[in-house]
Amino acid sequence: MDFSTDEVALFQELFSSTSTELVGESNKVLDIQTQIPSSLASILHQSSLSLLAEGQGYKLWIPLKIEKDEFGGLRPNFGTPEVIDINGHERSWRVKQPEDVTLTDETNNQLGDILSLSSTGLTLRIQDPKALKQGIDGKVLYLNLPDQKHVELQLEPVRSDRHVFAARFECLNHDQDVIREFLFSLHKSRNEEVK
Length: 195
Known about the structure:
Number of strands: 14
Protein name: Type IV pilus assembly PilZ
Organism: Shewanella woodyi (strain ATCC 51908 / MS32)
Order of helices and strands: HEEHEEEEEEEEEHEEEH
Largest sheet: 7 strands, antiparallel
Number of domains: 2
Radius of gyration: 19 Å
Structural class: alpha+beta
């Protein structure tokens, strides 16, 4: 997308400061990023700008699109934040043993108990590891979230150890946002300062 000279000047004015400390909050920082880290590019698809908010132990990458309204003015459109856990090494925040979340196959057969879920992968406790590995290869599976539609996905096995199976997943039909909204809601409910 090409921007006019006036639009470029507006962006330079808006984004001239790379880091702005929030008033009275020394442990929180708001940053505007024009480059999304490569590790988040697949999650924050179709976003050329993002806001970075940092809290204690986490970061929120907030997708931002600048759109024109019906009068030709610029209007920010904020997407659902991706929560990044920064305790240890940076990775997508995960919820342990999410309530009322299941992974099923096309016959609605539950594949195991979900031990953890992030916007990029999950771990399962399973009864028969061999049957699971054979049963998921190239198949569409369904992540069932509370009060949400079924999210279609395909798993890419990462590791298995006895009865614990870890996998990355690829969401089909652009359902990544549904998972991110679910996880952000959980994170928000557990962190008062995000509200």
